[in-house]
Amino acid sequence: MSCRFGCGLTLLSLASLLTPEYSSAQSVQELELGKSVERLLSAGEVHIYRIHAGAGQYLRFEIDPNSVELAAALLSPAGDKIAETVNLAGDERTLPVSARVPVDGDYQLQVSGNGRIAGKYRLRLAELKPLLPGEEKRIAAEAALSEGKGLRVQGSKASLEHAVERLQAALPLWRELNDALDEALTLMQLGSVYFMMGDAAKYSVVEAQALSIWRSLGDGKGEGEALNNIGLAHWTMGERDLALENLRDALLLRKRAGDLRGEAETINNTATVYAESGDLQKALRLKQDVLVRWRSLGDADNEARAFNDLAVIYSRLGETERALDYFKRALALRHEIGNRRGEAVNLLNIGTEYVKADDPRKALDNLVPALKMLRETGNKSGESVALQHIGRAHAMLGEQSKALEDSEQALAIQKQLKMLRPQAFTGNYLGAAQLKLGRPQEALIRFKESLALARSVGDRMLESDTLGEMARAYRDEGEIDQALALIEQSVSLIESLRSSVAFEELRTSYLATTAGRYHLFIDLLMTLHSMRPEEGFDVRALEVSERARARGLLDLLTEARAEIREGVEPDLLAREQSLAKALDDKTQRQIRLLASSHTAEQLANTNKQIRELTLAYAELEAELRARSPRYAALTQPQPLRVAEIQQLLDPGTLLLEYSLGERRSVLWVVGPASLESFDLPKQSDVEVTARRAYEELSVHGAAPGSGGAVAALGKMLFGAAAQRLRDNRLAVVAEGVLQYIPFAALTIPGEKGLVVENHELVHLPSASTLAELRRETSGRKAAPGLVAIFADPVFGRSDPRVVRGNRPASSAPVSEELERSAKEAGILSLDRLRATRQEAQAIVNLAGAGKSLQALDFRANRETAMSTELAGYRIVHFATHALFNSRHPELSGLVLSLVDRQGNPQDGFLETAQVYNLKLGADLVVLSACETALGKEVRGEGLVGLTRGFMYAGAPRVLASLWRVPDQATTELMKRFYQAVLGQGMSPAAALRSAQTSLRSEPKWQAPYYWAGFALQGEWR
């Protein structure tokens, strides 16, 4: 029996499948000794065969199932069952049914279709003869094996324990019979039982014993099955690398053996390991391969399962439309083949996806019928999940009483099934509903129960979430100090977790949950500041804001699966990656153990391994800080205290840091020797006004200051602090949608003109980033070259620059990441950027050809961008599509040439994660053709992540456009900017201000649309 992840056991017990009553309703076929019968068997169909045998004879049938799920039972003339067997999903080995005939008479063999898909099997009456010595022993061994398989199908704890006893009883009999083949098959069944019991160690041991036998027999198919199962055992034990190694070996053997089904199973298992360890792109490619394989094999049930698995991956990637499409394909296929249990699960998945997409009505349209079908098919755990999500949908519709009722029903089932983690989640949903009904005390009862459960299963992210919910309840009770203590514990837990561990456990809600915890922390501190202003709570709140930004960047890098190699010694990096992977795997193992049945020894061993790995990782972190400080500053951020922030500020420079919260937003104004804080409207109000302002500013022809939303936003963001800002340089640390707002085009109440007219302006990812930039660039020698320019890349085969004869009508394929990012940015096609050639030439004319690198046409490719050549230039200018993805920041990046001179496709998308590995010695990076679409959900890390990547790569400043500025206006502004930098020696911040004020002074370019879209991130000096 080859195991795979996600295989649901839907067979009933043999006793319920085969009964004597079938014989009166079915035609009976006679069997002849030595002759084979091949028949098509449909789901639920029963074939009946008759044979006459004399008392004491040895009767043996052999069934070749060809992967058909079936059960067979041999009945005496009186209708008593004297032998039986069962074939489980995917099994192909010959099944024996044998017995010593007790009395003379006609015996019946009943073969029942046990699965959901029809298929052919072959039956042969192999032996009918006097009983020989040793055959009683074989009958007993086969009976024990068959009984063990039947007990395994039942799946209860008691039946699994009994299955172990029966299968172990068969093993010595096979050894006495010198039957290595059946010994190996029995060991495989025993391993599968241990797998179901969650005992991965015993599972691995018995599969290794089977592997040894298969090898001695020269049976490559059996060897492949055993290695596949050993791979699963290692993964279950949190040993990812060993799991993948065994699965790779299993796949090779199964290919050699021509085991097509086995190949599909092993590829599927490999994909699941990648998916569960967070490598979703690899998982996606493998699952797509699995889908094709099951389809080619005509296995509609597994094809539907593959559609479902792909949907789950797309859901985790945040691609709701694709996820729903694949869930619906799985649903249609399962409906077609009559798999009602699978159909119910797919309806549940579709409903859950609509909950995630904030569409509660469509969610209920699917969840309600799913609940009905789950109940009809006896899927209690699925029923609890459906009720849980129905409750969430009702809560989203404001129907809190219904949400409570649904969640209570879900919780009752989860308690019955001893589902500890789901109980904790449902308890939190119940508590949240109670809070919305204004019942914080009742909510606290639920949250405390969930907290105990989260701790009992060792789920620290769930524990953090629950502590945060308790903090909300205490806040609503007016107990602010108690709430603050709890939120401090919650955030400390978040920060103690490796980002990857947290991400993979609660990926779908992790980012929103984490951001919400920090905002609640800030809100509580500011509440205490309003109550006790002399105690410095506003100072602490600013420091929490800096911690939140540091964590947000770490999570972005995790989401992008960035493998940063620059700034770290290779040996340390290899050790860090190996230890991190091992620690992540063991942590996942611990959570799985605690959430299921386990032995004290299993848990103790896992806990010991985690302690040892944690200690080793802590020691390595210390070594990284000493030997690779730049890498450590990124991966182990130590946000600045306020006094350290103030030391970064020049006289005449103010830091403006914004935090957007659920109940209030906050502005801190920090000077070299001062700090003031101001309450602003809540996040939703700020976002509505900011979006309208963005639309006004980024629309052609809008006059400066003419928009009502622009003026309203300036008043909202600056009004309370307006008097404090006069005559100062402004360094802005924005959040969320505000990172896409051109502050230069806003107005400050009481000031005449726009911000750009009265203030030099820069933006920062965080205040702490500035300290790191200065530390890294201090004392660095200036690069010998002036400007390296990437312009006018080639995006498709139809481009006339592609060699004639190599221009097929079809466009070149692009990476899935680029396709997704472009789609989400609203870009239907990547048009050629002809005007960037003039932009590039104008810059070269100012810099001098001898001090410039022009990467045009096909040379404007990713290979050039990632070469060490760029380290020799002070300015690196990218005049190409730069995508700032506000929905999925990890997909932000630069689009360079996508084909070579012959039209061959090449990867030209330089993603955020790859930017961190560039080798730059530049003082400035310019991104002059950015594309941004503000989606429904805006995470500012799309902009911050990309610009921060260039900073990590060596550039202390990044000049980027916030929308696609017209070509002529871009060229004109860039001429003026470079003239100020290269000709007049201005700092980039001063040069940008000069270029913008100069351009807007001309009537043709007066509208902010033409000049305000450019913003400088980073160092102002």
Question: Can you describe this structure?
Answer:
InterPro entries: CHAT_dom, TPR-like_helical_dom_sf, TPR_rpt. Residues 1-25 form the signal peptide. It holds the Pfam family TPR_10. With 1021 residues, the chain is α/β, with parallel strands linked by helices. Among the domains are: 14-131, Jelly Rolls; 439-562, Tetratricopeptide repeat domain (Serine Threonine Protein Phosphatase 5, Tetratricopeptide repeat, Alpha Horseshoe), CATH 1.25.40; 571-635; 654-759, 2-Layer Sandwich (Nucleotidyltransferase, domain 5), CATH 3.30.420; 780-1018, Rossmann fold (3-Layer(aba) Sandwich). The protein is built from 39 helices and 22 strands. A hairpin with a 2-residue loop joins strand 11 and strand 12. Helix 9 (280-296) runs antiparallel to helix 10 (300-316) and helix 15 (400-416) runs antiparallel to helix 16 (420-436). The termini are far apart.
